[in-house]
């Protein structure tokens, strides 16, 4: 393995532990008030009628459920990642019930995902989870390379990160396949949009 790959694995472990401590210290009521609607500078990036790819957050990730409800209320089709197996490529499928999540089931990564009968769709814009980001839009993810690969095969799709402020890193190891984010939203500010 290259040094960058080893660096990334160690970084991920440390940053995920830091994220867990941060979220555990947040009062539930505070957490419920964050990430309600996209800030205006980010909302402007999402054209009317665009299909928006979101994610179903795990316990420590920035919650994306309110954005899902907001986009649906505003006439957007919304989609979530779906995997046929752990080693299958990431696809997106239509998410129809962001309020009740009755259309989701647990998938290979222990994440809720649309059931097999939900149609596959291609989002025009992605709201993405992350382990860490930099002030100029670099992203460190879970290490599956899922978003990098998806963005590689869908050029022109913009990706907007949602994160806790403590996920900001001074710098991150970069590899040729890494795709930059167009903006990152935290509870206190927006980084970008970058050109
Ligand atoms: N909420 C969420 N959805 C997402 C991602 C993510 O980071 N967060 N992904 C980002 O690419 C994709 C899924 N990729 C993933 C790749 C690896 C692991 C992972 O290593 N998870 C841990 C813990 C899982 C568990 O609790 O069972 C693991 O498997 O050890 C998770 C997701 C698409 N959906
Ligand atoms: N476009 C690509 N084509 C082929 N392999 C890729 C591509 N992008 C990433 N990979 C591979 O995926 C693996 C993980 O990449 P990386 O560490 O950048 O993941 P990540 O962006 O942190 O994860 P994720 O996007 O799933 O949250 C690496 O082995 C990398 O070589």
* Widest sheet: strand ordering: 3-2-1-6-9-10-11
CATH topology: Rossmann fold
Kindly provide the radius of gyration, computed on alpha-carbon positions and rounded to a whole number of angstroms.
Answer: 16 Å
CATH homology superfamily name: NagB/RpiA/CoA transferase-like
- Tell me about the largest β-sheet: 7 strands, mixed
Oligomer: single chain
Low-confidence segments, ≥5 residues, pLDDT <50?
none
Helix content percent band: 10-25%
**Count of the separate structural domains:** 1
Ligands bound here? ligand FFO, adenosine-5'-triphosphate
How far the N terminus sits from the C terminus, by CA atoms, comes to 33 Å
- Shape from CA axes? globular
CATH architecture: 3-Layer(aba) Sandwich
How much of the polypeptide forms β-strand, as a percent range?
15-25%
Family: Belongs to the 5-formyltetrahydrofolate cyclo-ligase family.
GO molecular function: 5-formyltetrahydrofolate cyclo-ligase activity; ATP binding; metal ion binding
Cofactor: Mg(2+)
Catalytic activity: (6S)-5-formyl-5,6,7,8-tetrahydrofolate + ATP = (6R)-5,10-methenyltetrahydrofolate + ADP + phosphate
């Amino acid at each position: 393995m290259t040094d960058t790959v080893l660096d990334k694995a160690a970084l991920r472990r440390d940053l995920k532990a830091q994220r867990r401590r941060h979220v555990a210290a947040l009062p539930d009521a505070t957490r419920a008030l964050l990430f309600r609607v996209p800030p205006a500078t980010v909302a402007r990036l999402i054209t009317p009628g665009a299909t928006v790819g979101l994610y179903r957050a795990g316990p420590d990730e920035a919650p994306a459920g309110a954005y899902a409800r907001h986009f649906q209320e505003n006439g957007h089709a919304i989609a979530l990642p779906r995997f046929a197996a752990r080693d299958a490529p990431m696809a997106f499928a239509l998410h129809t019930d962001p309020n009740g999540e009755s259309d989701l089931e647990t998938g290979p990564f222990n994440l809720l995902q649309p059931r097999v009968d939900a149609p596959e769709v291609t989002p025009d814009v992605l709201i993405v989870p992350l382990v860490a980001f930099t002030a100029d839009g670099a992203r460190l993810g879970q290490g599956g390379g899922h978003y990098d690969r998806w963005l590689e095969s869908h050029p022109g799709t913009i990706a907007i990160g949602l994160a806790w402020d403590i996920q900001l890193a001074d710098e991150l190891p970069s590899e040729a396949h890494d795709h930059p984010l167009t903006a990152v939203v935290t509870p206190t500010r927006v980084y970008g949009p970058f050109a």
